[in-house]
Write a structure and sequence with these properties.
The chain is built from 15 helices and eleven strands. By secondary structure, it is α/β, with parallel strands linked by helices. The protein folds into two domains: 172 residues, Aspartate Aminotransferase, domain 1 (Alpha-Beta Complex); 247 residues, 3-Layer(aba) Sandwich (Aspartate Aminotransferase, domain 2), CATH 3.40.640. Helix 5 packs parallel to helix 13 and helix 6 packs across helix 8.
């Protein structure tokens, strides 16, 4: 494609993008297509000759767009958000155009130095202690894997990377029964085995990990000849948003020599609000911390801020230096390829720089405060509805509820049918959970474009659909 043709198509594409952002509400939130529908529109073999951008875009709108679930829709209340914003999109356009591979300082000095600076901005914004060093990972899952790998090496005297796992004791990871599956997956990838992941029981009211249960599990493993190595604590676990007591858990980890990591993937963004900083009490006892600006800080996926107390341990765990990666500056600059599992790295810092400067910290605070305030209002509405039950304490902007009308039989089945009806309706998108073994519906507010009216409209539609269901 010639540059002038690119210029013409790019202008048209930006117009399409702006129209999409302005009019995304006209789409059903969740894709309403059946499995295989999109694949059936794509030829089985690639085209032998060139096709016009106009034809490709026409097919995109006709065949691909109906199969898209619209994560930027203001009534997307499912999962946790992967929210975006106009300044973030603009930065992604620059990132794609530049096409930098930021694995070494030498391959992109700006990429490296901006990453160092904006992660320091984030550290200050959320109130983490001084002395933590930041790196941008693709996801919190990658940060958890880095924590488990570093814990494995530290616990074994850096032996496993050299000689493998054979011959040593079982290495154990501890986390709560509310934790994200990424911890179990990280343990499997690290070669520890899922049998060596301890899901520690949680308080039945707060869903926080029980410190006494953690201590008992560590002592039992030590008595059995196993090697306790890693603790993964939660701030904002996926199901009900459980918040662990970092002070108590960190003290136990210190006493037993565990590498301790905090997974705050979703809730970490709310720490820019001073009124929620109490959740960090005890974080100085931990070795690493992660949160995802791509969840709740208006920054496109993928962008996960990972902070470590001892970067030299992470580097020792992950670094390999073949001749083709050696450079004159090695040792005098940061080479972030030593801080993550993949060698290749995108210029992720640019979109953070755009977002933080475009909104300012105060603007970002205002958006998140609104989301939490609207969730508080929704909590009151659900509590006041005689045929609905709140199933767990609200955490920030996350709620769990179920439909429980008088005379209903199997509430799990009823709420399963309700959730399917809500999502098939297309007006909003919610997801399921289980709280104390019971089927529940999650409602999480966090989209950039969401307004109070979207929350109210969604709740009204949920009640209308629920009350039309046969019991």
């Amino acid at each position: 494609m010639e540059i002038e043709a690119f210029r013409q198509h790019a202008h048209a594409m930006v117009d399409w993008m702006a129209d999409y952002m302005a009019g995304v509400e006209r789409f059903p939130v969740r894709a309403q297509t059946a499995p295989g529908t999109v694949a059936a529109t794509v030829p089985a073999s690639p085209p032998q000759g060139p096709e016009s951008i106009a034809a490709i875009m026409s097919d995109f709108e006709r065949d691909i767009l109906p199969g898209v679930t619209h994560w930027q829709h203001p009534r997307f209340f499912a999962y946790f958000p992967a929210n975006s914003s106009p300044p973030s999109v603009l930065a992604e356009m620059l990132t794609a155009t530049i096409g930098a591979q930021c694995m070494l300082w030498q391959t992109s000095p700006a990429g490296t130095e901006l990453e160092t600076r904006v992660t320091e901005w984030l550290r200050q914004m959320i109130g983490l202690p001084e002395g933590l060093h930041g790196v941008i990972q693709d996801s919190a899952s990658s940060a958890i894997l880095c924590a488990i790998l570093t814990a494995r090496e530290r616990a074994t005297g850096w032996r496993v990377n050299e000689s493998g796992m054979a011959g040593g004791p079982a290495i154990v990871v501890y986390t709560s029964d509310q934790t994200h599956s990424a911890t179990e997956k990280g343990a499997k990838v690290a070669g520890l085995g899922r049998e060596n992941v301890r899901l520690i029981e949680t308080d039945p009211e707060t869903f926080a990990m029980r410190p006494q249960a953690l201590e008992a599990a560590i002592l039992a493993d030590k008595a059995a000849g196993r090697l306790p190595a890693c603790l993964v604590a939660n701030l904002g676990a996926t199901g009900v948003g459980a918040m662990d007591d970092l002070e108590a858990l960190g003290a136990i980890a210190e006493a037993h020599g565990l590498f301790a990591h905090v997974d705050a993937a979703w809730a970490g963004s709310a720490l820019i609000l001073e009124e929620h900083r109490h959740l960090l009490r005890g974080v100085e006892r931990f070795d690493s911390f992660v949160f995802n600006p791509h969840k709740w800080l208006m920054t496109n996926f993928d962008c996960s801020a990972h902070f470590v107390k001892a970067p030299e341990d992470l580097i020792r765990t992950l670094s390999i230096l073949p001749p083709f990666l050696q450079s004159r500056e090695h040792g005098a600059v940061i080479d972030y390829r030593d801080w993550s599992v993949p060698l290749g790295r995108r210029f992720r810092a640019l979109k953070l720089w755009f977002v933080i400067r475009s909104y300012g910290v105060d603007g970002l605070k205002r958006i998140i405060r609104n989301h939490i305030a609207w969730a508080e209002d929704l909590e009151r509405r659900i509590a006041a509805a005689p045929d609905f039950d709140l199933m767990a304490p609200r955490q920030l902007s996350l709620l769990n509820f179920r439909f429980a009308p008088a005379g209903a039989g199997d509430l799990d089945a009823l709420n399963g049918r309700l959730l399917e009806a809500i999502n098939d309706d297309g007006f909003t998108y919610l997801t399921q959970n289980r709280v104390k073994g019971q089927f529940t519906i999650r409602f999480q507010i966090g989209q950039t474009a969401t307004e109070a009216r979207h929350v109210t409209e969604a709740w009204d539609r949920v009640r209308t659909i629920a009350r039309a269901l046969p019991l």
